[in-house]
Amino acid sequence: MSDVVSSSITGNLADTTTHANALADALAWFDITASDQEERRRLSGIAEQMAGEIIEAFYDHILSFDQASKHFQDEEHINRVKRAQVRYFEELVSADIDDAYIENRRLIGRIHEQAGVTPTLYIGAYAFYMHRLGHVILDKLAEKPEEAFRLMLALLKISHFDMSLALETYVETREETIQNRERELSELPTPVLKLREGLLLIPVVGTLDSHRARSLTVELLEGIREHRAQVVVLDITGVAGVDSAVANHLIQSMSAARLMGAASVLTGISAEVAQALVKIGVSGQQLNTAGDLQQGIKIAEKLIGT
């Protein structure tokens, strides 16, 4: 269910042929009606009047916490962020919820994530603002509690929608960062190290997908030919994970090495890799394996000696 909603809010809005319907669906999911949007605009005067005061109180509050205060460089930086925060909350009660509004909220989520502002800090700021504004509304409409309650409900719906946009972007930005780092690691060249005459070490670090596994085979075979190696130690301690397809590539690489007259020792096998090897029908008797690199080199030296 959450995947459908996320796609409705963040995915389809980028499609010019469907974004209008997607926005309508997203608002409907949060039960935000046209009446709710009109109700919260009635708060614009109060929000404009109180936003600066609430934000000042908020920063007095958060700057007393080391975790929050470390995100600010100096007084000028704090003042700049305060002004942006005032605009942010003024728009919450006054701006039309349209494509521009959504893109702005998503941009804020990206900026926050890249600046290291955690969701906890973001939601904390929101909670502080809503709590203070709620008290102001109740005071202003003390004689009209039903109206105050209706206004707060409308504002809560919209604020939850607003937060969802920023938080989804937090997640997307974090996932993009992780994927970029994994891609960078997958593109790292795999070194072929000559430990001594006849003995090569190939340490594999990062993501090992099918494409990189094929490149590894080429590098391994070229290294054997160039150095006339008798034994190759293939160390995968630094590999995050291996699926069955990649495990099969590793076995093929070791078989190709054997055809070129070189034995292979596979080291750094994790429980996940062991399961992947078993899944494709490989047993421990078919491979020279070792739990760690030190043990693998010992096995390799014995193989050279025989």
Automatic annotation (TrEMBL):
InterPro entries: Bact_StressResp_Reg (IPR051932), Globin-like_sf (IPR009050), Globin-sensor_dom (IPR044398), Globin/Proto (IPR012292), Protoglobin_sensor_dom (IPR039379), STAS_dom (IPR002645), STAS_dom_sf (IPR036513). The keyword Nucleotide-binding does not apply. Gene3D superfamilies: Globins, STAS domain. Keywords: Phosphoprotein. Residues 189-300 form the STAS domain. The keyword Phosphoprotein applies. This is STAS domain-containing protein. It comes from Pseudophaeobacter arcticus.
